[in-house]
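hiii so um. not sure if this is the right channel but i have a protein structure encoded as tokens and i wanna go backwards to a sequence. like what aa goes where. can anyone help
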């Protein structure tokens, strides 16, 4: 299963969001030295996405014959 992707606020690349944080990633571009460099946007808290649609209206009474879900 793949993780949702969002644009990093620093380098604007599409990065996976795991556990509410951007995954660790390198900034775009080539490296001339063989050292690992993480983008400053790595491990930042990702902004929340739009709220999910509700399956039913909690204000509306259930239809006769239906039992409550929980």
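sure thing!! here u go:
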């Amino acid at each position: 299963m793949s993780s949702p992707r969002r644009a990093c606020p620093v380098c604007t690349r599409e990065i996976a969001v795991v556990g509410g944080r951007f995954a660790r990633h390198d900034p775009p571009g080539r490296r001339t030295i063989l050292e690992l460099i993480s983008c400053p946007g790595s491990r930042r808290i990702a902004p929340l996405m739009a709220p999910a649609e509700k399956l039913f209206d909690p204000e509306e009474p259930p239809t006769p014959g239906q039992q409550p879900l929980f």
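oh and The first strand starts at residue 5 and ends at 7.
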